[in-house]
Amino acid sequence: MVPTPGRSGSFSRFHIWKPASDFGLAEVFPKRGKGYLSDWLKDFIIKQSSLKSLRDFAFQLREELHSVIPADILAKNASGFHLCGYSSQGLPEFWFLSNIGGMQDFKYANLQPRYPEPTADFLERDARILGWDGSDPSSIQSASYVYRNGDFRAHVVAFERLDNVLTDMLSFPDFKNPNKPEDWVRFKFEFVAYLYKKFARRQIIGRPIDAFCLSKQLP
After folding, report:
1. Rounded to an integer, what distance in angstroms lies between the CA atom of residue 171 and that of residue 17?
2. pLDDT band, residue 174 (cuts 50/70/90)
3. How far apart (Å, rounded) are the C-alpha atoms in residues 4 and 22?
4. Which of 22, 99, 86 is nearest to 55 (CA)?
5. Residue 126 to residues 5, 110, 117, Cα–Cα distance (Å)
6. How far is the C-alpha of 40 from the C-alpha of 62, rounded, in Å?
């Protein structure tokens, strides 16, 4: 679930079980010249649809990105990818690929000239915190995780306050819950996009907004 501000910022492409969003650097530099990362990523996803796992997809993405983004350009630009889907066992997966080494306030820092290996941030890290034993889905406690990218100010400053506004408004009997979780996510991004359009010196979040929900019964 990401904003799509024209050609710079975050883009979302969806193909079968492999949703992928990218943020930061918006261009690639193949041998024939220069192009938009959003177009390249769409073609890449379609070409790699036969891969059997999200892990394979993440590592193949890293390898091919290195062939179209020179190291000197990557070292000066933050770039990252969020990849999610379900494993062959029906378990939810979330992978992260980025050249970002840290953050200073709301700015990405310690940028690397090459992407380190992708990390399985949910199953191998966050799910463990929730009690996941690595095999039994019932071992994990019921909870939710939020993964964010792009301009963190929108997520931290605006989104959490908007969630509180919704909670307060739902206390009145003439207000109803959103029918779907993605409807509320889309509303928040619409609000933030309008905020950036009206008041930001440079609009880095804009419309149209893509919001979708993947759901699957755990085994």
Report:
1. 37
2. very high
3. 10
4. 86
5. 30, 23, 18
6. 13
pLDDT of the residue at 16: 36
Residue 178, by phi and psi: left (phi above 0), alpha (psi -120 to 50) or beta? beta
**Residue whose tokens read 């883009």:** 11
Tokens of 58: 């993440």
The percent helix, strand, coil of the chain (3-state, each to 5) is 35, 20, 45
pLDDT digits (tens, 9 = 90+) for 44-79: 988 988 888 999 999 999 999 999 999 999 999 999
Residue 8 backbone dihedrals phi, psi, to 5 degrees: -130, 135
Is there a contact between 204 and 8 (Cβ–Cβ < 8 Å)?
yes
Please tell me the pTM assigned to this model.
0.82
Burial of 90 (0-12, 13-18, 19+ CB in 10 A): exposed
